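Structural prep section.
Before we set up the soaks we want a predicted structure of the protein with zinc ion in place, mainly to decide which crystallisation condition to try first. Input record follows.
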Amino acid sequence: MFEPNDRVGVAVSGGKDSMALLHGLKQTFPAAEFVALHIDLGIGSYSEHCRERVKELVEMLNVKLEVFDLQEELGFSIEDFKDTLYGRKVCSACGTIKRHLFEVLAERAGTKILATGHNLDDVVSVMFNNFFNANWHQLVRLKPVLEPSMPNQTFKVKPLIRAPEEENLLYCLYSDVPFREENCPHAHMERLRRNREILEYLSKGNPNFKYQMLRTFLKLIPILEEHVEKPKLIKCKVCGYPSSSQICAFCRRVEIVKKAKQRRECR
Ligand code: AMP
Ligand code: FES
Ligand code: ZN
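Run finished without errors. Recording the tokens verbatim:
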């Protein structure tokens, strides 16, 4: 994933997984330089709480922090998506915004490696979903080390891909790592819970089930990569980042949310 003396950007949301990740990496690789990357999504007290927790951890570890404040830098927040066609799926718009801003933050931090806190439970449940929907391209993107899609982009690494979320929670509790106690008000608990319940059911009586599933998917990925055509990427006309269309998904969403905001202000 990286060399022991590399400079590594760690996307830290304030949640237990990414907080355990930054703490664990810092203890394990003292010669590496870690930069914490945080996106303040402007989701009221939830985002304030997350940012506070992240600040607490970086001070504790003496790690540099780069923050992207959506409201300050782009003039809107994730809350503003409530007035758009994404009103019922704010989370999905948020995911697209975050993926783009991770690249922006990594560039600011001068790193080509972006580590995220995706855990075993997250990855297996998303792989499971993609598998049943024959969403092969998205399934491949979940591999532990994802190479850049274009030269200036980052390597995306998931050091905790084999760590169950429960272990990350225990790690935080035993190592006194601060983490957020609030849940995002936009999290779609219903859908998440349903997927998780299926996996929990299959894990009953076989605590290795999720590891086995991950192992199987990881064996499948190289085969899929040979057969699944990668989308052709070009540079987005607005921001210059890789895109499968003239204007990338991030810029399209920014335009939609800004227009909705203007309309609201004119009323
Ligand atoms: P999620 O998509 O919320 O499950 O988050 C997956 C990973 O993305 C987390 O473990 C973090 O590494 C990263 N992440 C999510 N939200 C943020 C954020 N607001 N700021 C920085 N990193 C984030
Ligand atoms: Fe993005 Fe909740 S963190 S909508
Ligand atoms: Zn763009």
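Observations: Residues 7-228 form a domain with the Rossmann fold fold (CATH 3.40.50.620).
Flagged for discussion at group meeting.
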